[in-house]
């Protein structure tokens, strides 16, 4: 199924839901135009972007290779997956000699490094019943309690504070937002003396550092 066909199906499904007055908005499809930025002074220091894909992606969007092809291979330098057990990244370039392709996982954000700025059309839907495992530090599982979370598109938590509260504040050490222009992170702890709270943006993934392993089902509207 092509992206255009997929969007058409989602629109029809949305109409049926509205007429029936049944399912929540989190079951509805969406289409998002999200900018993936190349290196450009004042905009992106290194062309690095933290991308959040939906739980239910379009047909055929299953791996790093599929994602690079969907964005357009020539525009993408690499796609990276965070490995919790080592705090390192698995990198796929899509070119000869690249490391192995890897599967995309619902709830996990990916790093996309761009050669060309591209307005990427993301289509899909959230699964409001899906629980994501956010891991605290545990030998062989998570080296530092760091998780890259793919922020849901119909999630009620709209800020870092809201996200921490929704997960349960006591379980979360901090939430971090990647700043493209500096390749640094804005950090919010939710405690006295923390840096400023910040808004969450659909299409962006965020780092969540956990104090307690939690199976998290986001609140949806």
Model description:
This protein is an alpha+beta fold. The protein folds into two domains: 32-125, no CATH class; 132-216, no CATH class. Helix content is 15%, strand content 31%. It has three helices and 13 strands, in the order αβββαββββββαββββ. The protein has helices at residues 3-20, 64-71, 160-167; strands at 30-36, 48-51, 56-57, 76-83, 88-92, 110-114, 118-125, 132-134, 146-150, 172-179, 184-188, 205-210, 214-216. Strands 2-6-4-5 form a four-stranded antiparallel sheet, with helices on one face. A four-stranded antiparallel sheet has the order 9-12-10-11, covered by helices on one side. It has a three-stranded antiparallel sheet with strand order 1-7-3, covered by helices on one side. Strand 4 (76-83) and strand 5 form a beta hairpin. The longest helix is centred in the first third of the chain and has 18 residues, at 3-20. Residues 2-27 have low confidence and may be disordered.
Any descriptors?
single chain; 221 residues; alpha+beta; 2 domains; four-stranded antiparallel beta sheet; 31% strand; disordered N terminus
Short structural summary:
The chain is built from 3 helices and 13 strands, in the order H-E-E-E-H-E-E-E-E-E-E-H-E-E-E-E. It has about 220 residues and is α+β, with helices and mostly antiparallel strands.
């Amino acid at each position: 199924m092509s992206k255009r066909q997929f969007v058409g199906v989602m629109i029809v499904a949305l109409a049926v839901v509205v007429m029936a007055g049944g399912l929540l908005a989190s079951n509805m499809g969406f289409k998002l135009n999200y900018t993936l930025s190349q290196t450009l002074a004042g905009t992106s220091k290194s062309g690095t972007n933290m991308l959040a894909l939906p739980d239910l992606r379009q047909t055929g969007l299953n791996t790093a290779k599929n994602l690079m092809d969907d964005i357009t291979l020539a525009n993408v330098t690499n796609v990276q997956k965070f490995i919790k057990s080592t705090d390192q990244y698995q990198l796929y370039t899509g070119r000869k000699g690249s490391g192995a392709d890897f599967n995309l996982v619902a709830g996990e954000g990916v790093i996309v490094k761009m050669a060309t700025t591209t307005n990427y059309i993301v289509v899909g839907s959230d699964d409001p019943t899906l629980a994501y495992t956010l891991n605290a530090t545990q030998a062989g599982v998570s080296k530092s309690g760091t998780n890259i979370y793919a922020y849901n598109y119909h999630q009620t938590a709209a800020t870092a504070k809201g996200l921490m509260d929704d997960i349960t504040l006591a379980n979360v050490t901090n939430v971090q937002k990647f700043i493209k222009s500096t390749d640094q992170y804005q950090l919010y702890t939710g405690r006295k003396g923390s840096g400023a709270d910040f808004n969450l943006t659909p299409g962006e993934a965020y780092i969540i550092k956990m104090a307690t392993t939690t199976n998290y089902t986001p609140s949806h509207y």
